[in-house]
Write a structure and sequence with these properties.
- The chain is an alpha/beta fold and 293 residues long.
- It has a single domain, classed as Alkaline Phosphatase, subunit A.
- It is 40% helix and 16% strand.
- The protein is built from eleven helices and eight strands.
- Strands 4-3-5-1-6-7-2-8 form an eight-stranded mixed beta sheet, sandwiched between helices.
- The longest helix has 24 residues.
- The chain is globular, with a radius of gyration of 21 Å.
- It starts with a helix and ends in an 18-residue tail after the last helix.
Length: 293
């Protein structure tokens, strides 16, 4: 004989379970990534400068001030390594001229992410326009070039406040300009001053991020790094002053404190992909590792 009361009880349990499960799914925050690239910033200079906004990120996040960029420390080489997750021997960018980059085999990490998650909204907003050279069709939802850091910051703030964005890379260039003009030196007040002014722009950007309408429902990973350091009024050599960089990771999923292992510029793209829950394939042959999560 069928026990209808018993069956109804089972049905209620199943329904409650489905309600709980669906609620649990809806409560899961959506993973998003903001990458702040600050061109030409020596880590020792960053630590010398008064940078309350960047300090707030690394002191409450994961960090390394002894990370490494490519021995051929030119912007084109190093930004490409950061954004592809592989060294120059694979991506084939050997200078700022970007002759014949191998984006077919080693594309921008935006492309890897959108292959698996085609609805991701990916933005690249840069002062130095050549950084966009490796972007192929449909890699970026929006690509924007602005001629000053102030204009880049304004555009980023507007985008974060008003746009459904999942991944945003931004490039600021004033620190590198100061290094080339005045010298990449700790005792150089204009170089240190450029870092301090850039820190204020970082503060504006983080403030805009936290003011997003759905910020509490989102799980942002903020990565901050640079392409190279410098000495005198230049860079490009395989010496510590040029190749030692900083790496900062800030967010809910970060393991706080100094990262003890060697961190490299190529780790940025791989860490971003990991946070975006992209399945990183072996046949991509990425050189970078997840750092700070």
């Amino acid at each position: 004989m069928i026990n209808k009361g018993h069956n109804r009880q089972i049905l209620r349990i199943i329904m409650l379970g489905l309600i709980f499960f669906s609620g649990h799914i809806s409560l899961k925050a959506q993973n998003k990534v903001l990458i702040i690239g600050i061109d030409g910033t020596r880590p020792d200079a960053l630590l010398t400068a008064k940078t309350p906004n960047l300090d707030g990120l690394w002191q409450n996040g994961a960090y390394s001030f002894r990370a490494k960029t490519d021995p051929l420390s030119w912007s084109g080489v190093c930004w490409t390594s950061m954004l592809t997750g592989v060294w120059k021997e694979k991506h084939k960018v050997y200078s700022n001229s970007y002759k014949n980059p191998n984006v077919k085999d080693y594309p921008h990490f935006f492309r890897r992410a959108r292959e698996q998650k085609p609805n991701l909204k990916t933005y690249s907003i840069a002062n130095w326009k050549p950084v966009h050279t490796i972007l192929q069709e449909n890699d970026a939802t929006v690509t924007i070039h602005r001629k000053t850091d102030a204009a880049v910051t304004k555009q980023v703030v507007k985008t974060l406040k008003n746009t459904d964005v999942d991944v945003l890379f931004l490039h600021l260039d004033n620190v590198d300009h100061a290094g080339h003009k005045y010298g990449y030196a700790l005792e150089n007040k204009k170089y240190i001053g450029a870092i301090e002014k850039t820190d204020k722009k970082v503060g504006e950007i983080i403030k805009a991020l936290k003011k997003r309408k759905d910020y509490e429902k989102e799980n942002w990973l903020v990565l901050v790094s640079t392409d190279h350091g410098g000495s005198g009024k230049g860079h490009g050599e395989a010496i510590p002053e040029h190749t030692t960089i900083f790496y900062i990771a800030s967010g809910k999923d970060v393991t706080k404190g100094e990262i003890k292992k060697q961190v490299n510029v190529i780790d940025v793209a791989v860490t971003a992909l990991k946070h975006l829950e992209v399945d990183i394939k072996k046949d991509w042959q990425l050189d970078g590792e997840v750092s700070g999560l």
